[in-house]
């Protein structure tokens, strides 16, 4: 009788009491990191070194699963609906907050809502760069804008889809400068960059990571950046703000999220692992090699960053309006 009473008491423990024991052993099996875009884009180039570092720390596989489609909406929604057990994570981009608002603008139900995902850790937050082929006639932002105004609808740019992390910054610029440019959407940043390098389009707004090797090799030229300050690696590239476009500020950040129902002990286990990985010099070197700067934040700092940035981007999307 006494043994049964003890067993019954143990089974009656609430989840908040029982969960820490499970979190202590986390993960115990493979953890999938979803990237909602094809390989080669900003989320992918951040996810891979982070996943490799987590594998070393956890001694468990951390495969990166590319689930592209609908400018990232499909992969984001997949993780939002995943089991909240800590084994399905999302390396999201700044478009995470944009896509539900864009769906409402288009008159359809969002595939997910931002509050269905729990922020765990931010790894990078770089401003996008306006890049063009080095063989193009534009050597400055002013030349590019003047030509776009002189030839409405004739200069094309690629993106990772309507309202994506690469479309919104360009739409900010075209709206602010009064430009009519041809938007050519692709499924992700990798294909959008390939289109630029292959001469299918003439411009691209990209995070510095994917375009850095091509800038260094002289295949591409950067005309401007969307940050409040110039990038340390590209000090010669002016910001759009200093060129007279104060509303054109945009950061393509990459951060890890879990399904919102993930218990607090598991969230803390994930946060602690991300903090440890970010502190490893090898992680910073791997991100830098891909053209990214480690800008680690978690807990309240990441939540506040997400709140402010999401509000700013939602305002920008409403100014851009309906895009078919």
Automatic annotation (TrEMBL):
<feature type="signal peptide">
    <location>
        <begin position="1"/>
        <end position="18"/>
    </location>
</feature>
<dbReference type="InterPro" id="IPR042100">
    <property type="entry name" value="Bug_dom1"/>
</dbReference>
<dbReference type="InterPro" id="IPR005064">
    <property type="entry name" value="BUG"/>
</dbReference>
<keyword id="KW-0732">Signal</keyword>
<comment type="similarity">
    <text>Belongs to the UPF0065 (bug) family.</text>
</comment>
<dbReference type="Pfam" id="PF03401">
    <property type="entry name" value="TctC"/>
</dbReference>
<protein>
    <submittedName>
        <fullName>Tripartite-type tricarboxylate transporter, receptor component TctC</fullName>
    </submittedName>
</protein>
<keyword id="KW-0675">Receptor</keyword>
């Amino acid at each position: 009788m006494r043994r049964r009473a003890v067993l019954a008491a143990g089974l009656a423990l609430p989840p908040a009491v029982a969960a820490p024991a499970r979190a202590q052993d986390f993960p115990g099996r493979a953890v999938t990191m979803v990237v909602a875009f094809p390989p080669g884009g900003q989320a992918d180039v951040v996810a891979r070194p982070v996943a490799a570092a987590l594998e070393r720390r956890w001694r468990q596989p951390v495969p990166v699963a590319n689930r592209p489609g609908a400018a990232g909406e499909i992969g984001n929604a997949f993780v939002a609906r995943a089991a909240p057990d800590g084994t399905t994570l999302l390396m999201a981009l700044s478009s995470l907050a944009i896509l539900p608002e864009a769906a409402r603008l288009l008159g359809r139900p969002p595939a997910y809502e931002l509050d269905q995902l729990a922020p765990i850790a931010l790894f990078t937050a770089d401003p996008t760069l306006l890049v063009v082929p080095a063989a193009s006639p534009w050597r400055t932002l002013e030349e590019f804008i003047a030509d776009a105004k002189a030839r409405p609808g004739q200069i094309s740019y690629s993106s990772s889809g309507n309202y994506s992390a690469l479309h919104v910054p360009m739409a900010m610029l075209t709206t602010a400068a009064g430009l009519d440019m041809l938007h050519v959407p692709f499924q992700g940043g990798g294909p959008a960059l390939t289109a630029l390098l292959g001469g299918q389009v003439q411009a691209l707004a990209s995070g510095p990571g994917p375009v850095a090797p091509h800038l260094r090799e002289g295949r591409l030229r950067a005309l401007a950046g969307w940050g409040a300050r110039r990038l340390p690696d590209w000090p010669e590239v002016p910001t759009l703000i200093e060129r007279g476009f104060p509303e054109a500020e945009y950061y393509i950040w990459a951060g890890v999220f879990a399904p919102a129902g993930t218990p607090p002990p598991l969230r803390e286990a994930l946060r602690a692992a991300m903090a440890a990985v970010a502190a490893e010099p090898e992680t910073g070197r791997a991100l830098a090699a891909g053209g990214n700067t480690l800008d680690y934040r978690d807990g309240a700092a990441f939540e506040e960053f997400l709140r402010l940035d999401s509000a700013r981007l939602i305002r920008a999307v409403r100014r851009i309006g309906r895009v078919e």
